[in-house]
Amino acid sequence: MTADARTEDRPVAALTAPPPGSGARVVTTRGQRYRRREVLLALAFLFPNLVLLGVFTYRPLLDNFRLSFTSWNIASPTAQYIGFDNYVEWFTSSSSQTVLWNTVVFTGAAVVGSMVLGLALALLLDQKLVGRNAVRSLVFAPFVLAGAAVGVAFQFVFDPTFGLVQDVLGRLGIDAPSFYQDPRWALFMVTTTYVWKNLGYTFVIYLAALQGRRAELDEAAEIDAASTWTKFRRVTWPQLRPATFFLLITVLLNSFQVFDVIHTMTRGGPLGDGTTTMVYQIYQETFVNLRAGYGATVASIMFVALLLITLAQVFLMERGRQK
Amino acid sequence: MTGLSTKQRVWWGVITVLVLVYALFPVAAVAATSFKRPSELNSGTFLPPNPTWGNYEQILVGDAQGLFLSALRNSVGISLIATAIAVVLATLAAYAIARLDFPGKRVVLTTALGVSIFPIISLVTPLFNVWRSIGLYDTWAGLIIPYLSLTLPISIWTLSAFFRQIPWELEQAAQVDGATSWQAFRKAIVPLAAPGVFTTALIAFFIAWNDFVYGISLTSTEAARPVPAALAFFTGASQFEEPTGSISAAAVVVTVPVVVLVLLFQRQIVSGLTQGAVKG
């Protein structure tokens, strides 16, 4: 490996000319010196990764932008250039409003719901008690289950004839809402399902943050006899800020893109677009309605939206850190 | 923590039970259905009146095995291959990032991690188009490649965080003690790096195993269709005619290995997911 070559004369190298035969050094504009061997090795190690990501993610992403300016039936080999027509259509059509609303409700509820509940559970389970590891595993597990399997499982929870919800409500003498017919209840159903799955993630991140916090601050607060709420707000919460920002970014990116749960549970219905979010609309337009150009347009709009939201969050996080 | 009061113990017990109910009720719902006979599905009861293995026989040795077993084979094969390649490539990249000095490190890292904010769905149509023209549509390779771009960013991120914490001086110390550089690497560094690599492999495997968007868009037959896509093939649209029992059994079968892995390696998986999250 390079370890032997690495340490020999690094600090001196800047002061003296390279010894003859030691190989060339790459000097950048900043005057920083790199070992040629090290740079070549790094290049060789990174090359396959960068080629894969370049060819199979960056290039398709650009291709998607190109397709968004076309009218293209995915079954036909040629796409026809139509300028901004798709964009005009999306921004003026009334169904986009429903789709946008569904996306905002689903994403917002998923982010807030899973973060609040995840934090609550983490606070509750941050105790050194018997069986806590098993309990933690169980709360965490749903996060790594396949969304399609979770969707299937929750179909049996919400099923109108033999589901768990109607069974329990029936015993209490209450009629279960029609989760599969009423768009609002359907949206509630898929959101709840996703929150259940995603809670495992917010929970473990918050739990790790809680365990990494400084105990002496807690003890100081205890000596001051602060109330539980004051202690949480003044001592614990500020220490959870990095975890909260991290979760806001990652959970939002993930929830925005949920497809499997919606596909297995409702196929975007009822009433056509009852639970159709942007991701689902993209799939529907491209592979069901065969309007791949229009699907690409919605995908481009979604990409730009996600990029702007993420940049704004990173900007706020950096500003928050400087304070 | 010792000296817990009775009241606290009771609270802990209540909390535990509530958490168990919360985590297990959907599992119970799908498991209960998977043991019902077709005639019992609409009986209105939650628990199966006469539990049966019929649905499992159906998907493993019966009529539905063609669909399910091939999907299971595809899922296992594709996920394992994608995981192996991703871990090897990510190890190389993470080593370069954590250990080597080269110009443009920041750009490389941004390029690799930037991918994780791309909506997967926006890559599907262009890939579909290319795959169809070069013959990768509905093949294992046609899924392995997108799974690599799905798993590489998080693998590189997780592994470089792990590698930064390794005390690399140990390698030189071993060499001073007379080991060859290969021995030094194998005896001093590999044992320290192995847990990080293992964790990364687990996370990459879960991502590939659970993928749905690529699985459903880039396949059309049993040749490559993975289990999550196969599950969806029956569900949703025709809610009242679907082979409910088989689906629930299939959902249970595909979930069990994941749950076992979580119970065994919860700590490793979580340590991977929280790299960089908590330290900010």
Give structural notes.
The complex is a heterodimer of chains A (323) and B (280). Chain A is mainly alpha-helical and 323 residues long. Helices cover 71% and strands 3% of the residues of chain A. Chain A contains 15 helices and four strands. In chain A, helix 5 (94-125) runs parallel beside helix 9 (183-211), helix 5 (94-125) packs antiparallel against helix 12 and helix 6 (132-144) crosses helix 9. Chain A is globular, with a radius of gyration of 26 Å. The two termini of chain A are 43 Å apart. Chain B is mostly helical and 280 residues long. Helices cover 71% and strands 0% of the residues of chain B. The longest helix of chain B is centred in the N-terminal third of the chain and has 35 residues, at 65-99. The radius of gyration of chain B is 23 Å and the shape is globular. Mean pLDDT of chain B is 83; it is low at 236-241.
Q: Strand order across the biggest sheet of chain A?
A: 1-2
Distance between the termini of chain A: 43 Å
What is the chains' assembly state? heterodimer
Helix/strand order of chain B: HHHHHHHHHHH
Number of strands of chain A: 4
- State the CATH superfamily name of the largest domain in chain A: MetI-like
Q: What is the helix content of chain B?
A: over 70%
Helix content of chain A: over 70%
- Strand pairing plus helix content of chain B: what structural class? mainly alpha
Q: Which fold name corresponds to the CATH topology of the largest domain in chain A? A: MetI-like fold
Largest sheet of chain A: 2 strands, antiparallel
Membrane topology (chain B): Multi-pass membrane protein
Family (chain B): Belongs to the binding-protein-dependent transport system permease family.
Subcellular location (chain B): Cell membrane
Keywords (chain B): Cell membrane, Membrane, Transmembrane, Transmembrane helix, Transport
